[in-house]
C-alpha cells in the first residue's frame, strides 16, 4: 500500500524515534513492503519511519535503480535498517547535493563524513555491524538523520538556509507540488 509522505513542517519529522521490539511489532513485514512501495512510487532511494508518520526506528534503502557501469555495487543494495545506530563516522567530509521526499523541490549541497559504521537488524531480525563509504554512507546517513529528527536542511550553511526560507515556509503552509501522496501540516 502506498502511504502518504509527511512534508516539511510536520512535527513527526522532528521527533527522535524509539527502538522497536520487532518480535512484537504488529505487521512488521507489511510495514516494510509498504515502505518500499511508497519509496518506489515517489522515485526515492530511501525512506524513514518519520516520513510516513511513525516514531519508530526503521528505514529502507534501495540503490539498485542507480546501478550502472560506474557503480555496479549499487545493483544489489536493497536493505532494511531496524533499530539502526551509527557507532562511528570517519573519513573526509564530502559535500554533495541531496534532496528529500519530505522536502520536495529543494536540493542543497550537504557536508557528510565519507565513512560510517552502523549496527542494525535486517528484515529477518538478524543483527549487523557494517561499515559503508561513499554514496552508500551518504544515503544511510540521510535516512538515519530522520530517525533523530534531523533534516538535510539543518546541515547546510546559514546563508543557504536563509535563501530557501521562503520555499520551506511554503511547504509548511501546505503548498506542495509533487507526483506522490503527501501529508502536510495543514
TrEMBL record:
Cofactor: Fe(2+)
SUPFAM superfamilies recorded: Peptide deformylase
Binding site for Fe cation: 100, 142, 146
Keyword Lipid metabolism in annotation: no
GO biological process, one term: translation
Gene3D superfamilies: Peptide deformylase (3.90.45.10)
GO molecular function, one term: peptide deformylase activity
Matching NCBIfam families: pept_deformyl, PRK00150.1-3
Similarity-based family: Belongs to the polypeptide deformylase family.
Physiological role: Removes the formyl group from the N-terminal Met of newly synthesized proteins. Requires at least a dipeptide for an efficient rate of reaction. N-terminal L-methionine is a prerequisite for activity but the enzyme has broad specificity at other positions.
Protein name: Peptide deformylase
Organism, as annotated: Fermentimonas caenicola
Gene of this entry: def
